[in-house]
Every structure is written in C-alpha cells, then in structure tokens.
Design goal:
The chain has 232 residues and is α+β, with helices and mostly antiparallel strands. The chain folds into 2 domains: 97 residues, no CATH class; 86 residues, no CATH class. It contains 3 helices and 16 strands. The strands form 4 sheets. It has a 6-stranded antiparallel β-sheet with strand order 5-2-1-6-7-8, covered by helices on one side. A 6-stranded antiparallel β-sheet has the order 13-12-11-14-15-16. A two-stranded antiparallel ribbon has the order 3-4. It is globular, with a radius of gyration of 18 Å.
Length: 232
C-alpha cells in the first residue's frame, strides 16, 4: 500500500497567537479529546473539552504522529473548515492540511455553553459591538492602517515573506466595503482581528483593565473574501 502524502498548507497560518487562540487534542481519562483554554470574567482559567469529535481527533493525530511520533497538540480550523496542523521543527514546512471538518465545535462547562457561533454563555445571539464571550480560536488577519484593506503575511519560500492583501483578490473598492464594518469597531488605526470556522469575526480591544474582545459580525459572502487556500 502506498504511503499517504501529507501536504503542506499554503494559506494563512497563525503565528504568535496566544494559548487561548487555538484548539488542541489532548489525552483525558484514557481518550483523546478536543479542548481549549478559556479565560473567564472571574479571572479563572477553564480547560473545557469535548469527546464529540473523534473524526477530528483522528485527523489531527495522524499528522502529528507522522511528523513527530506523538499524537496530540495544537491545531486550527479556518473559515473554509480546513484543519491546519502545525508541526514544529520539520524540514518540509511547519503547517499541514489534515482535511476539512464541518461539524460545529462547542463546549459545555459548568452549565455554560462556549460557542464560537457568536453566542453568549446562555446561548443568546450577539450583535456587532457586543462583547465577545466565546472561545478565541480563530485565524488572525490584519486591518490595515486607515481601515481600507485587510491582509495577512505568509512565507512563500525560504527568507521570502509576502503580504497577501484582500484588495489584490477582489479590488480596492470591494475590499474597502469588507473592511468598513471591521474598521467601525476596530478603529481606523487598524490592527489584528480573528475569523473562526463559523465565519464569525471578533477583535481584541485594549481597555484600562487590559484586553477585551468585541464581536464584529459574520462573513456572509465568501466571494468577497480571500480565496480558499490550497495545499501543495
């Protein structure tokens, strides 16, 4: 039987994100589960997990085991439901596509529901401008200074980094339309925001107590967004 080919992911790969901005596969009571780190309003750190995604666990563990010899570890899911697995230290590249996963991931923890689908802890829908209380896993993008474009950076070959701008794909006028609702909440000075697998957008905002997160809205028209990344 021919060995499976593992393909490098050539899209937006999260770099330098905090621990609560990623999913993980971890071993719990003899089984591998999907988990996150969640910081509560009371200053507690929660470690909710779910046993409801064995197919996803298998996808991630297959890549991790192939490259590192060990299952478990961090992964991401982008707005196209692509499962992106970082593999530190391997010579062929750091991120690999494990496949696609469309089942919604939510966590039940102490009678609360943690959902990335723009809901509060009691299941009520958020509106743009509301405080984002859901989990933080997502793919980071940057609103450019001036608030008229969106970009991310990627390494295209050794020692060469490219800035991938939305305007390059859909034109400056359309890119400005997409950026506008983000700028209205984030501010025209720009900065990082996140898009998760539910296509929901949220952004960190500084305040006198540190960092908070604000809900921006949902990507409704994916034809007015970055094209679906491919793996090579």
């Amino acid at each position: 039987m021919a060995s499976k080919k593992y393909v490098r992911f050539e899209g937006n790969c999260p770099v330098n994100v905090s621990r609560d901005a990623k999913y993980s596969v971890k071993r719990q009571e003899g089984n591998y589960v999907v988990g996150i780190l969640y910081r509560s309003d009371e200053g507690e750190i929660w470690y909710p997990s779910s046993e409801d995604h064995p197919e996803l666990v298998e996808m991630v563990n297959e890549v991790k085991t192939h490259f590192t010899g060990n299952p478990g570890g961090a992964f991401y899911i982008n707005e196209y439901h692509q499962v992106i697995v970082p593999v530190a230290g391997n010579e062929e590249g750091d991120y690999y596509l494990a496949g696609e996963y469309t089942s919604p991931i939510e966590f039940e923890f102490e009678d609360k529901t943690l959902s990335g689908d723009a809901k509060d802890l009691d299941g009520n829908r958020l509106k743009p401008g509301n405080r984002w209380v859901g989990p933080h896993p997502g793919i980071p993008y940057v609103l450019s200074a001036g608030g008229k474009d969106i970009y991310y950076k990627l390494w295209v070959r050794p020692q060469v980094e490219r800035e991938e701008r939305l305007s390059r794909h859909i034109g400056k006028t359309e890119a400005e339309k997409v950026a506008l609702p983000i700028a209205e909440i984030k501010g025209r000075e720009g900065g990082r925001f996140y898009v998760n697998e539910f296509k929901q957008i949220f952004t960190p905002q500084s305040n006198e107590f540190g960092i908070d997160y604000i809900y921006v809205g949902k990507l409704e028209d994916m034809s007015k967004w970055f094209p679906k990344p491919h793996a090579g």
